[in-house]
Design brief:
With 270 residues, the chain is mainly β. The protein has one domain: Autotransporter beta-domain (Lipocalin, Beta Barrel), CATH 2.40.128. The strands form three sheets. The protein has a twelve-stranded antiparallel barrel. The chain is globular and about 60 Å long.
Length: 270
Amino acid sequence: MKKFFFIILLITGSLSSSDFVLMPWMREPWYFDFSALYRFQYFSRVNNGYGNDNNRNISHWVESALVVPLFSNFDLEAKIEINEATDITFGLESIGIQGRKLWFDGITGDIFTLTTPINIRIVPKARLQSVATPYHNVFNVEAGCAVGKEFARGGTWISRFSAGSLIGSANTGSPWLKSFINGEIKRGPFVFGTILKSYIGFGSEIKVDVDNFKGYANIDHSSIDIEFFSRKKIGLWGNLLFIYTLRPYARSYPEQLSSGSIVYDIGFSF
């Protein structure tokens, strides 16, 4: 655990869950968003898994991201993940970058907000031996769209809703589909919300060999996650975000998962 706190200090100021930014809204140009996350995760077993190692898995994750809006309709996000799990030692989990294009902006008068993200994520090959690693292969690419609608009162939004999907492919193996639906409400300095996420891999194999695992590239897997979160604005010092995630459904994928995350994020400009 000491190593994780050391890494938090190391990456803070240099570069929040495994996903890139999902919601379609953007900041004004050159207003940076930095976030740092710690997540504790547990799941009981891998559904349709077999082998001596198919038992409970506990992992600790540290993630950090920096979002940079280069223009009023385009931003970039860089992300790094580090983790340690029951079946793999402490190390770099992934690095990635995402670009998003804003096509419609509900804040400036359009009926809704629409963005199209494209991201690339690189995963060290050794990490694919862990069933806690959710990626298909070493080189992973995703592209999709997200749409959202805000409802405002007195010059600030009070509720908003969004949904989107991403199609992904890796250097080898089957494609996948990720989707989400999100709802949020704002009350003073607090934001409360929930996200429903699905993840489907279109592989040909139903059974998962946990003892000789090599990633989800060829697995016919699916899962549904529900996230509940609350965010508290702490004046000029950014925001604190608390997230609880549970997984009510999984097929050929880790099941009975639950996790708790704490995120610190702050916006700044030069």
